[in-house]
From TrEMBL:
Gene3D superfamilies (alphabetical): NAD(P)-binding Rossmann-like Domain, Regulator of K+ conductance, C-terminal domain
Protein name: Trk system potassium uptake protein TrkA
Ranges where the RCK N-terminal domain occurs: 1-118
Keywords: Ion transport, NAD, Potassium, Potassium transport, Transport
RCK C-terminal domain residues: 133-215
Organism: Actinomadura barringtoniae
Length: 221
């Protein structure tokens, strides 16, 4: 694929290197020529000096042939405007914008522009390290309504089928972490000792799910 990146900061340059290593062609845009110093000497992609929301600049970067556009400059307004130009003017379906203000991120997400709200994401990661395990979700969507969370199943669920847990909790298991590896379970998969169960659910439903799982009484007792 050809991918256009706006912003050659730490995130943009890292993405450019990773995407190029994966065999994609990359064009990266930044208003400062000095920013391109972050790119390694062997970088083969295009370096375009200018603003990512300028139609001539974005066209020079090959947006008409692009399969994706990423806006990761330091400005929320620049990122969202350039993302809209890529989507609405040039018809690029796969567009992502980094937004620092989580309130803006929620608005643009609802308008159909995928966003990464860096402030909220960073805060969540810090809270997960400060507070007891499982207090904060592993991931939440920009609206804050859907989360990926660890489920504290305890020993009572060891040896039980995933389907039984899903029925008791009224939710779906997204995946299990077993011996450091991720496993997508089938309904008849059995929960083993040491498994970490991850669920995808509405944020306001997680407490109910945890309570339902914790209050289960073993059928054999």
């Amino acid at each position: 694929m050809h991918i256009v990146i706006m912003g050659c900061g730490r995130v943009g340059s890292t993405l450019a290197h990773i995407l190029e290593d994966k065999g994609h062609s990359v064009a990266i845009i930044d208003q400062s020529p000095e920013a391109f110093r972050r790119l390694r000497s062997g970088f083969k992609g295009r370096r375009i000096t200018g603003f990512g929301f300028d139609r001539d600049v974005i066209a020079e970067a090959g947006i008409e042939q692009a399969s994706a556009f990423v806006a990761v400059s330091s400005g929320d307004n620049s990122n969202i405007i350039s993302a809209r130009v890529a989507r609405e003017t040039f018809g690029v379906d796969n567009v992502v914008a980094r937004i620092y203000d989580p309130r803006r991120a929620e608005v643009y997400q609802r308008l159909g522009i995928p966003t990464v709200a860096t402030v909220r994401w960073t805060a969540d990661q810090i809270l997960r390290r400060l507070l007891p395990e499982g207090t904060e979700p592993l991931w939440r969507d920009p609206t804050g309504e859907v989360v990926l969370a660890e489920l504290d199943t305890g020993h009572i669920w060891v040896g039980q089928k995933v389907a039984a847990l899903e029925e008791a909790a009224g939710t779906r298991v997204a995946f299990l972490s077993r011996m450091g590896e991720a496993l997508v379970p089938a309904p008849d998969s059995v929960i083993q000792d040491g498994d970490i169960v991850h669920i995808m659910a509405r944020a306001d439903d997680v407490e109910r799910i945890n309570t339902a799982v914790a209050n289960r009484v073993e059928e054999d007792h």
